[in-house]
## 1
Amino acid sequence: MRKQELERVARAMVAEGKGILAADESAGTIRKRFAAIGVESTEALRHRYREALLTAPGMAEYISGVILFDETLRQSTHDGQPFAEWLQSHGVVPGIKVDRGTTTLAGCPGSRITEGLDGLRERLYEYQQLGARFAKWRAVIDIDKDVPTAAAISANAHALARYAALCQEADLVPIVEPEVLMDGTHSLQRCEAVTDATLLAVFAELVAQGVALEAMVLKPNMVISGAEAPERASASEVAEATLRCMRRRVPAAVPGIAFLSGGQSPLEATRHLALLNHERAPWRLTFSYGRALQEPALQAWAGKASHHEAAQREFLWRARLNARATAGIWRESDEVRQ
Ligand code: 5MM
C-alpha cells in the first residue's frame, strides 16, 4: 500500500462527525466487564454481544472505525460474513489491538511497560491479510509519588514508536495510545505535566524512528484530575488544559486525535469532547471510547438474547451523542430522551 493510501485511511478514521469504537477488550478485561453485569465470559456470549454492536443498524453514521480483539477479527456475523468484511462493506474501517498487555518495568518500581514487539512483524502481516486496516497499541503511564520516572516514559515511548514503524511497513495505520491513567488522587496540573512529558517523548521517538505522522492517529487521555482527587477540575478546565497540552506537543501533521475515555462516565466523556470542539484546532478531535460508549449497552444487554435490540439502541444513542460532540453541535439538552 502506498503512503497516500495509509494517509487516506488515517483521515477516514477521524472523519468529520464520527469516532472510533474501542471493542478490543482482551480476555481478562471483557471477563471483568461481563462480571459487572453478572454474565459469564464465554466465546458464544462475547460473539453475540460484539455482533450486536458491530451490526447495529445505521452505526456507520456515527462510527468511522472499530478496534477489534484478535478473537473478533477471526469471527463472522451469524450469516457467515467475516466481521472485518462486514464493517468494510458498511464504510467502517476495521482495526486490531496488537499489544499483549503490560508487565512491571524492571528498574522502575510502580511503572509498567507494554509487551508484544517480538514477532509483531509477522502478526501484523497476518492481520492485514485478515482485513484489518489499522492497529492499536496501548502504553500505560501510572501516576504516583515519584512515578513515572523519565526512564519509564522513555521506554514506553520507544516501544510505541517501534510498533508504529512496523505498522506502517505492514500497510496498517497505527493508533498510538499513550494513556496517562486517571487512577489516583493527583491534580489536573500533575496530569498535565505527565501528559506533556509523555507526548514530548512519544513524538520525539516517532520522528526519530521515521514514522509518517500524516499516517497515524493519536489516542491520548484527556488532561483530567485523578479519579480520587479531593477536588476535581471542572469540565471547562479539563478542555482548556487538554487543548493547551495537545497544542504544545502534537504536530499539526497528525490528522486526528481520538481520545480514550479512561474511566470517565459516558456523560462526562461526551461533555468534555464537546467542549474540546468549541475551539479551532489543527487536527480533528474525536473519540475512541470503550467504556464510555459501551457501558449503557452492556447494562441493557445483560447477556439476554431478547435484549439484543435494546443493547443496539443504547449503543447507537451514545454513539450519536459523541458524534454530535465531535461535530461541535452537542448540547446538554440532547441527553434528554423524548
Ligand atoms: C484505555 O482503554 C482503551 C480505551 O477504552 P476506554 O475508553 O474505556 O478508556 C481500550 O481500547 C483498551 O485499550 C481496550 O479495552 C483493551 O484493554 P485491555 O486492558 O484489555 O488491554
## 2
Amino acid sequence: MGSNRRFYRFLMVLWCMAALISAFAPTSHAFKREYKMQVTVGPNYYWGRGAAKFAELVKLKTAGRIKIKPYYGSSLLRGAQLKSSQLVSMGVIDCALDSTINISPVIPECNVFSLPFFINTYDNLDRLENGKTGSLIFSAMKKKGLKPLAWGENGFRQITCSKKAILSPADLKGLTVRVVGSPIFIDIFRTMGADPVNMNWGDAITAFQQGVVDAQENPVGILLSAQIWQYHRRVTFWNYMADPLIFYWSLREWRTFSPGIQKSIMAAAVEAGRYEKALVRAGLDNGESLLILEKEFNEKDVIPDPTAYMKGKNMRVIELDSDKRAQFKRAVAPVYEKWEKKIGKEVVKSAKQDMAK
Ligand code: X2X
C-alpha cells in the first residue's frame, strides 16, 4: 500500500476517533482531559520551548481547566508537517504552534513570507505581522476553520553546506539541497540552479547524518539545536526568507469556549509568542531580545551570541552584503511572477505598503 494511502487511512481512523469522543462527551463547559498541540520540532528547540511556555501559561491563566499537551516532532502527523493546518481545521488536532511554511498548503497567503529576498529585516517583518498583511492572513485562516492567536517566530532562514561556501548563485549550481515539501522552495532552488529534494524535518536530520544532501536552509535557532556543524561546516547568512510561527486553534472548538477562557488562551499565546520570539532573536537583533528575556522572563538559558557560538564550533560564517544579496534576488526574479499570483496581489501589495511605513 502506498504511503499516501496509509496516511489517509491513518487520518480516517484519527477522525473517527475524534468524532466518537465528541459524540459522547458532555457538552456544557466540560473540558477535554488533554488538548493536543502539534509542534514540528523537538522540546529543546526554541520553537519547542515556546510551545511549552504556551501550555504552561494556558494552564495557569485558566486555573488548570485547559491542559495542553505539545506533541513534538510532528508525532501526531507521523512526521508529515505540512498536514498540520488541515488536521487542526478538521478538529482532529486541537491546536498548533506552526511555521507559516507548514500552514501554507491551506493558507497560500502565508507564502508571502517565503518570497525570496523580499523581507530582510526584523523591522520589516514586524511591520508585516502587525500591519494589514498580518490581518489579511489571519482573516484567511478564519475562513478555513483556523483561529489564529498570536505570532511566534522560527527566524530568517540561512543556508548551510558541507561542500563549499555559498557566496553567489553560481555556487548553488548542482548542489543537492534539502528543502521543506512546500512547492515554493522547489521553485526557488531550481531557479537558482540547485537540485532541491524535499523531505520532512524528521527525515532531514538522518539525511544530513548520512551525507545524502550537500546543503539545507533553516533559521539560526534550528541550526543551534540540530548542531548543524556536525554535518555542515559553512553557513551563509543571507536572510533570504522570513519564517514566522503562528499559535492557532481549531475554530470549531474555539467557538465552544466561553469568552473568559478565550481571553485567557489568547493572552497566553501573546505572552508565549513574545518569549519565543525573544529566544530566537537573542544575539541577532539590537540587544532588545536579550533584555526582554532577562527582565520579563528571567530566562538565562539562551545562547547570547549565536554567530560567535557557531564560529566556536569551527563553522565558517559568511555574511552577505547588499550587493551580493541583490545578485541572488535577480536570479530568483521568475519566482515572483508565478508566486505573486498564488499568494494574491492584494497580500503582496499590502506587504510592500507595510514595509514602506
Ligand atoms: O522543516 C523545516 O525546515 C522547519 C523545521 O524549519 C519547518 O518546520 C519549516
